[in-house]
Amino acid sequence: MIGILSAIIMAFVANTSTNPKSHSFPWFLFGLGLAFLFRLAFGLCSEIWFIDQQQIYLIGLKFYCTGQWPYFGADVAPHIQLPGALQGLVVGGPLYLCPIPEAPYVLLNLLSFTGLCLFAWYCSKRLPQFPKWILYTWLLTAPWVMAWSTNIDNDSYVIFGSCLFFIGFLETIPALSLQWLPATAANFLMGFGLFWNAQFHMSYVILFPFVLVSVYFQWKSLGAKSLSPLVAFLMGCLATGAFILPTLEKYGLAQGSGGAGNAIAFNPGNFLSFFTVLFRFLSLAACEIPRFIGAHTTDRIEFLRENWWLAPFAAIAGVLGIVQTLALWVGWFQKNHPQKDWPALKLLAFLTFLLIYMSFLFAIKVPAAHTYYLTLPIAMLYGFYVYSPWVSKKWFLTTAKILLACNILFHAGLALHNLPVKSLYKNRDLFVKAISEKNYHLLGERRPNTLY
């Protein structure tokens, strides 16, 4: 129901303005409200019983039940745990305000929704001719965004930090800046986003090269005047990094790092993953359907057999998703582009991909796409630039409407499928009992050898 209403409202705002003085602005806000409810409902219907999601919920639940400061967050691998309290605070904190199982989902969706809306608004400033209804709807409902920003998992929280970080980063690069933010504000956002993400996913380390590039260009253009923005960057780092300091104070630098150094190792086996990483990076901005309905072909066929009415929407969205990925690949070679900053933007996208690829040569894990999900804002912005020469074409607008409608209906159906078998409503009473009795052990146990 919410998915259908979201599709209707987003279609209605196709010709509306985000100008507060416009008569259509209230309808735009109404559409955004429905989009938020749709995302929240989808998150509540998503997987929570798988060990990774359960462990993240347990970190916050343990904080709520025991009152112990959550010195560490997600478990990256055996004997590797992210330092910092933010993971426990964002999951457990809402339970203090409203002790019901859904409370952490509400905060997560408020955070991700806010970050994505801000980034959509920023994209609309960069591409004023691009229909806002496409920008907002796609950024809020794309498969990767829905799967990794609405459900309780450590990855889900990075999109908030990433949107802030990359807005700040883009505003510090002369060839890409809109001059929209003062240098101090842009640097503060970078610092804030950097140490926000540092407490949710190990992939935050790939943000450091962006910081170095930003510092280089700022020093080159501002000279000694860049010291003030640098101070703002450090203040942003402190705003979120302060939640790591108690961990370092209690455990020291060696143990307080959570064994992060163990995640770095030369891995030549990932050398041949060049095209795998390339197309997975591009798919972050595409309608990638198959991976979210099953890990294997047999699982996907079984899902479509059980939900036969979803098959047409899944098929159309899936095929268009493949076309999107190919278009993003071929689109890099466009020469006559209406945006003057296109050469700089596509170079940024390529270097981002190259950075991801190179980083996996020194990572203990294989290049799974969710491990570089934090770069989704760059992939999305690149995609909008690729499509921008076509936005006045009738065929493009028609295709966009079909894709968005099929994508939203697919996710509405996926939520209904997951509701009784994967969501917390499979056994909500267990969550309620653990919260009311303040006994997190009722829900499960933290992994062995974890520091919190």
Question: How would you describe what is shown here?
Answer:
With 452 residues, the protein is an all-alpha fold. It is built from 19 helices and two strands. The protein has helices at 2-12, 25-44, 51-66, 86-97, 103-126, 132-141, 143-149, 158-170, 183-197, 208-222, 227-241, 245-256, 274-283, 297-306, 311-331, 342-359, 376-387, 394-418, 428-436, and strands spanning 72-77, 80-83. Strands 1-2 form a two-stranded antiparallel ribbon. A hairpin with a 2-residue loop joins strand 1 (72-77) and strand 2. The radius of gyration is 22 Å and the shape is globular. The two termini are 40 Å apart.
Give the overall average pLDDT: 91
How many helices does DSSP assign? 19
Low-confidence stretches: 1-16
**Global geometry:** globular
The count of β-strands is 2
Query: Major beta sheet, specifics?
Result: 2 strands, antiparallel
What structural category do the secondary elements indicate? mainly alpha
Strand portion, in percent?
under 5%
Quaternary assembly = single chain
Largest sheet, spatial ordering of strands: 1-2
SSE order, one letter for each helix or strand: HHHEEHHHHHHHHHHHHHHHH
Distance between the termini: 40 Å
Q: What is the percent of helical residues?
A: 55-70%
Gyration radius, in Å:
22 Å
Task: Give the helix/strand layout.
Blueprint: H1 2-12, H2 25-44, H3 51-66, E1 72-77, E2 80-83, H4 86-97, H5 103-126, H6 132-141, H7 143-149, H8 158-170, H9 183-197, H10 208-222, H11 227-241, H12 245-256, H13 274-283, H14 297-306, H15 311-331, H16 342-359, H17 376-387, H18 394-418, H19 428-436
Antiparallel strand pairs: 1-2
